[in-house]
């Protein structure tokens, strides 16, 4: 449950190491050129969004939903799901009744 | 008959009711117009067989004296991020090329229940990320008014189809302006309902707390008719509102006498195209002439809305798009790859540049060490934006602003620097952040003939008020008698000797 | 060598006993063909959205109340983002900074001593699917089955307050008992409805700071809880003694090799990027409903255990047997209401009723059993005869009284009749008399047995015994 305190990269330039790490987290395979372009673009955008620092948000609560939403409930009833074709019809690798993937090595 | 597809839904309804036209004819007219305007690239998938079958059924219902309502037998089209069972849904992405939807979105189910004829799926910015419909894996959409210009985005295909007459109306989605801005660029009416007014079930999520489905139509009355069908509580969408749906079409008659319209000073700034400014001013003057009171208001956080928006929407998008991993559906990368390699290659090949950019930004914004500074900060700013609007609505019934600072820009003009594209959303994102309903309707044309849109924003669930205000402008400008059409269609009409 | 104190915390995941999943209407039934119970929601298809199962919340709240937690009126759903094939959306809907319940605790017995565990929190989350790597099924690939995906779970997080593997296993057993008793979870470790991860660290004995911990996974039996933790304590101890640092990592228990193995993947950085799930509103509970649930909570096993011992004088063993299952306890108390011989009923339930293939635990059957015991207690039949009657007994069938009457099984207590029977048997076994006289007093038992046989088991054994001994002692055998 660790959240660092308010930090921001000193310059708007995004470190290539950080870009690489984000690409890894997001599971996007980018080559060096793409990483570099991405870094530039992200720096540009982050430089712009830094203007939010001009707003004082001390004691301002966060909002997740713009409209008040009550808790939505559902009764504990079983309903039929998708038929076989609907479930597996779009699967890149249907394996019997399952979804095939490269072997998961733990 | 050739201009049947240029009629509005209510005009078509009248003809259908009198037996002077059939749904099949209307559908065929749209399909023909679609063929003629193929170069717009508005459609990604057309379903002539399904459409004509539905049209025939509607005609039979009508003949039996059992029409279902104003949308029965009316041909409409849907942005390609809404699932229609049995049809492809691509979100204009290579990732979902070939994906066949296994179920119907709730809005689709509602349209089908109303008897609407579904013509096909419309082109868009990939996964709804963009403001020009240039970020489509299947090529950009052209603005029907000028082939060298963008129709706006991300619901560019929806706006273009309605403007060109290849659909009587369309559904789009609006996360930061993606219905209203293309509506303004293409000279049609576009409405983003209040957040939670319309179900998101079966609509591919971009930013869950900002997305809303809404209609694009030829006039305000059609907009009301569409909205009446799609709005309402959905037990499958935990974020949908239980509030009852009023009769939006009945509310159109009200006029604006006694209503107070607020003009937020921060929206009337230097960067606006003078012709756009002039058109908005004229619209405001018209309303004033009709008896509305016009007051100045202030929305001090306007300048921060884009920054706030791009932090929130990219964060949510980075999470919403994580499901596209090539395991259960989607284009999996070929080759003998290990699991992580498969993920990385599938997503790198499947997503376009803009989508990747936003996923990366969103991942960063949520990541350890940056969450407080970015995401949490943006959520607090969101509260401030909402407070601004709430304060403004304490002094007026609706806000009037330009929908966009300029008319449609040129294809390719804003692709080099993502920020220039993002800044085009300056007048529209506020409504998404605050969950407010917004309506854009045509209010004039620039000297080059490009359409200009005026935006009306209201408090939560005030769609009826917005429609009423919009209808008043339409009537005053004579829009209900003569609808401006893009050059190609009207040229064709004059060739055939039918008044434009 | 520094004496190390183990510090252990358990994160227990329990599947809630609902019919449908947490956020969709698919069945949670175990054992179906792969992906038979899936829909667009639990398959993470584009456009699908979650809707909360009311009953799952009720069960989770009941568990939290029973464990003495502070149940929050308002809690929030968070997305835990990571990539794995069994996680269809690429995130798990869980609860992060605003969980359903905080605090709480559980008292339990471990190795004869009384222990207390403090809980940190209980939160709700959805389960992931299952990956199958068995070559027979998946060949060189892995296969994913999403039937389990979306099943409602509660995660019960304890404070790091356990100090031995034995205690950890005992705690988990006690927790399982509570959850089963509440009918919140069926606690089946083999089927995976109860799972635990253990956080283990060592610190110098007497120190207050925590050492570096490892997280142990793949523990699916109580024995493994103990073995895996014991192994890990030893492993860490050795490392620390050798001056090495303990690496913070996740380790898998290898049940065949009986070791824990590091599963830390070099590339996987676990930044879960938690944020509030925008597809779900806050979970807001109605305080009145929570109070109703609290009032309806069954008596917890620990309290029942104490009560059975104090109020009914049962042994701890017997009390424990009855408390294991809420329905058995209810059966016992229903029987007790008819006939108040707790010890006898406890014996009958354990030794006869529960030994049946599919024991009937209905109140009607309980009353039958109680009546049977009452007949023994008032001398109408002997214990042996009662066992015969028992075989005929059913909830809806004739009462024990009726069966005894119909079969003429009433105990014979008439001293003349018994005297005659005894005399006959003693006369038939002169060698037994001699044996008895020469000190082999146990032949009396043999003769009693013969009398019982001769009377078709109906003689009152106590009287017969007395008569036999009298006959043997006086030597009369007319």
Gyration radius of chain B, to the nearest Å? 21 Å
How large, in whole angstroms, is the Cα Rg of chain C? 30 Å
The number of helical elements of chain C comes to 16
In terms of quaternary structure, what is this? heterotrimer
> What fold name goes in the CATH topology slot of chain B?
Amidase signature (AS) enzymes
List unreliable stretches of 5+ residues of chain B: 489-500
What does the largest sheet of chain C look like? Answer: 10 strands, mixed
Secondary structure class of chain B reads: alpha/beta
Number of domains of chain C: 3
The number of distinct helices of chain B, counting runs of at least 4 residues, comes to 16
The biggest beta sheet of chain B, please? 11 strands, mixed
Q: What is the helical fraction of chain C, as a range of percent?
A: 25-40%
Structural class of chain C: alpha+beta
Quickly describe the structure.
Chain A is built from three helices and three strands; from the N terminus they run ααβαββ. With 106 residues, chain A is of the alpha+beta class. At the A-B interface, α1, α2 and β3 of A face α9, α10, α11, α12 and α13 of B.
Q: What can you see in these coordinates?
A:
The complex is a heterotrimer of chains A (106), B (500) and C (478). Chain A is α+β, with helices and mostly antiparallel strands and 106 residues long. Chain A has a domain at 7-54: Histone, subunit A (Orthogonal Bundle). Helices cover 31% and strands 8% of the residues of chain A. Chain A contains three helices and three strands. Chain A has a two-stranded antiparallel sheet. In chain A, helix 1 (16-25) crosses helix 2. The radius of gyration of chain A is 22 Å and the shape is flat. Chain B has an eleven-stranded mixed beta sheet, with helices on both faces. Chain B has 16 helices and eleven strands. Chain B is globular and about 65 Å long. Chain B has a single domain (24-301, 383-496), classed as Amidase signature (AS) domain (Amidase signature (AS) enzymes, Alpha-Beta Complex), CATH 3.90.1300. Chain B is an alpha/beta fold and 500 residues long. By secondary structure, chain C is an alpha+beta fold. Chain C has three domains: 4-289, no CATH class; 299-407, no CATH class; 415-477, Orthogonal Bundle (Arc Repressor Mutant, subunit A), CATH 1.10.10.410. Chain C contains 16 helices and 18 strands. In chain C, helix 7 packs across helix 9, helix 8 crosses helix 9 (342-353) and helix 13 (415-428) crosses helix 16. At the A-B interface, helix 1, helix 2 and strand 3 of A face helix 9, helix 10, helix 11, helix 12 and helix 13 of B. Strand 1 (73-74) of chain A pairs parallel with strand 2 of chain C.
